[in-house]
């Protein structure tokens, strides 16, 4: 999914230094990779375990640990146990890049799972390209994470979730066809590449009328001025690309002002903190894009995952936990028969019809999963239903 962290001038410096991320594939010319051990397969975890988006990273780390526990208890991969080397990138772009290097060079892992967020993934991807150690982000959705500026595919960067533009398509189609929303208000986080990418595609695909468009930025707390403008307009729904840290508060303020129209958002809503910030009673008639929900017909693997996760953590898994859980099993599958990290990367790129708890997926030529999406409906803060959405080109 997710977030390109805004770190002001420091972030700009990081991005300038990352210009090479978009350069030609010769970045990988000397990438030799790391050998897989005789007894263990070392998987690195580069995750946001503290800081601004720790809720995402913590859920993903829980999913990762559960998957590794299951695989090892069933004999491992090719008889080898998975060894996790987990590090906290503190929800910071520069730290994520340093962590990626440390995991590949010092810890000699053969795959890195994470980061969870797009900005941190973009920073880390250059290190994977240099070292020949594949990076698999469970939830980084920024469109260009897996491709260079010239359109070529990054050899060592993959994702388990869908792209931002895909989410924009899902929201546009669901609003127009499933909800029959002919008029919408568009209110989004202008400080986030994540939200901007979703908005751009939504505008291209939505068949109705956008009667008002306004923006907010990360860290805002008072949204009443914009909501007051919206209140007297004739519209059918509010489309609100952003993250739970802001959209939860916006939802609360909107409902308290008497705006009871449906609210539609991306996968950034998919955390219990959204419900806490909005208050349960206000998180009603709220819909968000997801790759996973317990409210659909579950395959046996998904049902077992939910049961085992509850036993392990005394909690219900969210989308981020599920995506990370699938990521481990994808890496395990790609590690079969591989002798080093470069072979793991090749196998990930050839993954077809992989059945995970988030659905059946195949990795395409740009290292994105081909999979369907869901629109989850919240009622009084709880998932009430989930509607599959097959995007039409």
Automatic annotation (TrEMBL):
Keywords assigned by UniProt, alphabetized: Amino-acid transport, Signal, Transport
PANTHER family: LEUCINE-SPECIFIC-BINDING PROTEIN, PERIPLASMIC BINDING PROTEIN OF ABC TRANSPORTER FOR NATURAL AMINO ACIDS
Family classification: Belongs to the leucine-binding protein family.
GO-annotated biological processes: amino acid transport
Classification via PROSITE patterns: PROKAR_LIPOPROTEIN (PS51257)
Pfam families: Peripla_BP_6
SUPFAM superfamilies linked to this entry: Periplasmic binding protein-like I
Range of residues in the leader sequence: 1-19
InterPro entries referenced in this protein's UniProt entry, alphabetically: BCAA_transport, Leu-bd, Leu_Ile_Val-bd, Peripla_BP_I
Organism phylogeny: Bacteria, Bacillati, Bacillota, Bacilli, Lactobacillales
Chain ranges of the Leucine-binding protein domain: 40-381
Protein name (Swiss-Prot/TrEMBL): Branched-chain amino acid ABC transporter, amino acid-binding protein
Top-level taxon of origin: Bacteria
């Amino acid at each position: 999914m997710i977030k390109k962290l805004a770190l002001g001038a420091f972030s700009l410096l990081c991005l300038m230094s990352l210009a090479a991320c978009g350069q030609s594939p010769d970045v990988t010319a000397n990438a030799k990779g790391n050998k897989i051990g005789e007894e263990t397969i070392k998987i690195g975890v580069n995750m946001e375990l503290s800081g601004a988006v720790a809720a995402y990273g913590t859920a993903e780390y829980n999913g990762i640990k559960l998957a590794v526990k299951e695989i090892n208890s069933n004999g491992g991969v090719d008889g080898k146990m998975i060894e996790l080397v987990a590090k906290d990138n503190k929800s910071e772009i520069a730290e994520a890049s340093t962590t990626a290097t440390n995991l590949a060079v010092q810890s000699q892992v053969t795959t890195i799972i994470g980061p969870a967020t797009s900005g941190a993934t973009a920073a880390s991807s250059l290190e994977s390209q240099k070292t020949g150690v594949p990076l698999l982000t469970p939830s980084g959705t920024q469109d260009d994470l897996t491709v260079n500026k010239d359109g070529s595919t990054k050899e060592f960067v993959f994702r388990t979730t869908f792209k931002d533009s895909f989410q924009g398509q899902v929201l546009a189609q669901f609003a127009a066809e499933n909800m029959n929303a002919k008029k919408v208000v568009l209110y989004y986080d202008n400080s986030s590449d994540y939200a901007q990418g979703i908005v751009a595609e939504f505008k291209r695909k939505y068949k109705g009328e956008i009667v008002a468009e306004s923006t907010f930025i990360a860290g805002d707390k008072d949204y009443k001025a914009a909501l007051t403008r919206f209140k007297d307009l004739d519209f059918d729904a509010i489309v609100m690309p952003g993250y739970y840290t802001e959209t939860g508060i916006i939802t609360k303020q909107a409902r308290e002002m008497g705006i009871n129209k449906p609210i539609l958002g991306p996968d950034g809503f998919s955390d219990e903190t959204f419900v806490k910030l909005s208050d349960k009673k206000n998180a009603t008639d709220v819909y968000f894009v997801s790759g996973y929900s317990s409210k659909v017909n579950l395959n046996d693997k998904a049902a077992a995952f939910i049961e085992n996760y509850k036993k392990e953590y005394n909690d219900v898994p969210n989308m981020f936990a599920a995506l990370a859980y699938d990521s481990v099993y994808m890496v395990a599958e790609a590690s079969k028969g591989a002798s080093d990290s470069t072979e793991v990367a090749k196998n990930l790129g050839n993954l077809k019809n992989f059945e995970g708890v988030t659905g059946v997926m195949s990795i395409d030529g740009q290292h994105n999963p081909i999979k369907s999406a869901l629109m989850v409906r919240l009622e009084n803060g709880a998932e009430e239903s989930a509607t599959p959405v097959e995007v039409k080109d």
